[in-house]
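User: Hello! I'm new to structural biology and keep hearing that structure can be predicted from sequence alone. Could you demonstrate with Periplasmic beta-glucosidase? Please show me the input and the output so I can see what each looks like.

Assistant: Of course. The first part below is the input, the amino acid sequence of Periplasmic beta-glucosidase. The second part is the output, the predicted structure written as tokens.
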Amino acid sequence: MKKILLTILSLCLSQVMWAQDYTKDVEKLLKKMTLEEKVGQMTQFTSSSDVTGPTLRGNVEKDVKAGHVGSLFNAVSADYTRKLQKMAVEETRLGIPLLFGYDVIHGFKTIFPIPLGEASSFDLELMQDAARVAAEEASAAGIHWTFAPMVDVSRDPRWGRVMEGAGEDTYYNSEVAKARVKGFQGDDLAATNTVLACAKHFLAYGAPQGGRDYHTVDMSLQTLHDVYLPPFKACVDAGVETFMTSFNEINGTPSTANPYLFKDILRDQWDFEGVVVTDYTAINELIPHGIAGDLPTAGQLALNAGIDMDMEGDVFLSTLVQSVKDGKVSEKDIDHAVRRILLVKFKLGLFDDPYRYCDAEREKSVTLSQDFKNRARKAAQRSIVLLKNENQILPLTLNNTKKIALIGPLAKSKKDVLGGWKAKGSPKQAKSLFEGMKAATKDKAELLYAKGCKMSGADTTGFAEALEVAQQSDVVVLAIGEPRTISGEAKSRSDINIPGVQTELLAHLKQAGKPIVVVLMNGRPLTLEREDELADALLETWHLGTMAGPAIADVIFGKYNPSGKLPMSFPRNVGQIPIFYNAKNTGRPFDPEKPSGYKSNYLDVPNTPLYAFGYGLSYTEFAYGDIKLSAETMEDQPITASIEVTNTGDYDGEEVVQLYIQDLIGKSTRPLKEMKGFEKIFLKKGETKTVTFTIAKEALTYHRWDMSEGVEAGDFNVYIGTSSDNVKQASFKLTKDFEASKQYNPIKSK
Ligand code: GLC
């Protein structure tokens, strides 16, 4: 009874805390602080238990006791964070608690699919739930703050960090961003199972020249506002509490020193009140960027740009006090930063109980629970994209498949399935494809195995044994792709073929004359023309996390009918990059039906990708009716677009019905189509459902040459279908111009 009463009491207390206004508390504490203590709060160091960047401060405990640290990251476990928190609370003058941060990108110990994989599910509730589980586990290990979601739109698969985001589309990235923020933060930050989320990396980090990480970003303000900004605004609308700067420059100004981003847009236009932390040593990097000659200048530029906390750089700590004395920065600006940092600590309830997240009992009880593993398996199933299924060889049925040859360097991998940014995920807990298929086949079919080759190098000596195993089987399942170590941060590739001789192994196995199901495991879109040609069936499974093996087996044996869709285009070759569905028409559009010279095309490859944004097959078929519009014209009121979708195949299944809009004529050129909605529906065999989308004029606006935001009267096409390149069409007319209510303000902060 007592426990129940205590729970009810703590729930009520947390509700009160969440709604509370902490202004007085913050001001009262701020008044007591010395300038050195304020600058200490603006300092974040990594503990040495995990390394996620180029340098290491070393003995952070000394810094904590000296009051030089406001936040630590990469320090995890209830016990270790309790030990460090005690130093801050009991050994410093004011006892201000620490914030503990960590990169909980797609799970903490129960690892979910990499975010790009999860984004293939087009299931927002599922992605919110994945973030919820991550927050439950991380908060139980003493973590208050995750450096996620990464919401960088990217159109370039050479960039290794595409694995962390939701692909090439702005609208879809915005929807996913909201889901992930809500999953991490929940609806009560004072609850001990929620964590601060962090919108990163502000801004346009996903558009480096050549897809080379940290490289220069140079683009028009129109593209910056129409393509890269909206997912961050979506995070603010979802209540995100923190932002992280990006390493890159934009048009000559590194983000970490850019007041246009962090004052004009984030604070003035969006009224964001949260904390801005730099990326790892990003202030120090203003020197190699060439806009600061020394650390004091770098620190001044960052503070004057609106940055609140210095991750690992030790620039604020070592230079700001002197910069105030030299009159280069104002203590008022430092106070603004410290207020925001203290406020999130109050919101988390850390001043009421600094040890409320350090609960070793809870850590033991929630981590890697069966419920979390079940939710991870469900997310993994739904992240799988069926790219090819010649003659419907999938799903395999065990009554006529008696011998299965499982081949390939990823077939038994328990490490690579965890993907990049695996936090504290352990291969020991992960289930390989081999384990998943073994459990699925049991005594109903014999599972043969051969590795065939490694994931890198040119050694083909394992091919012979693999061919023998294939020849003894009824069907081959070949697991090939990328190790987890070649996608993620600082993992750009100029060649995005499957590495090593894995594709040669696939070609070699064709001699067995058996159907070949290729299971891809990778952290980015790859160039797969040969694999598409050689494979009978092709499953894109990404790096699916702890429950990868069982989830892939569920799909192979038909326990789950694949429903994933690609959140990024797959180029035919690297020369096509950047290739994305919402491109412009150009003045010389190439028409493959009526090819002619002097058009915008290549001599050696079509303009289309191998697989388009939104593409993904099912074991069943879906038929689309015609689009019905509620009106042929739109003035002020929204119109609706409806369509009937029927499951005409042999399996129950899910379909992602996608809505795209084209503005045919604008003051500026407009993309051929842009996603403006989607709905994932379940249809039993033979069932028909009507899907209805609402189209409002506010969703049609864009930034013109003069940076005004609006949309002109004129003709619009509506597209609805199963993929960006497979749609039905209808049209409507917008009868009058519309100007967005909040217009772009010229760059104010210098
Ligand atoms: C890294 C990443 C950033 C991460 C941070 C802390 O350099 O760019 O995404 O959150 O450092 O590990």
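User: So the tokens describe the shape?

Assistant: Right, they're a compact way of writing down the 3D structure. Reading them back into a model, for example: The chain has 22 helices and 28 strands.
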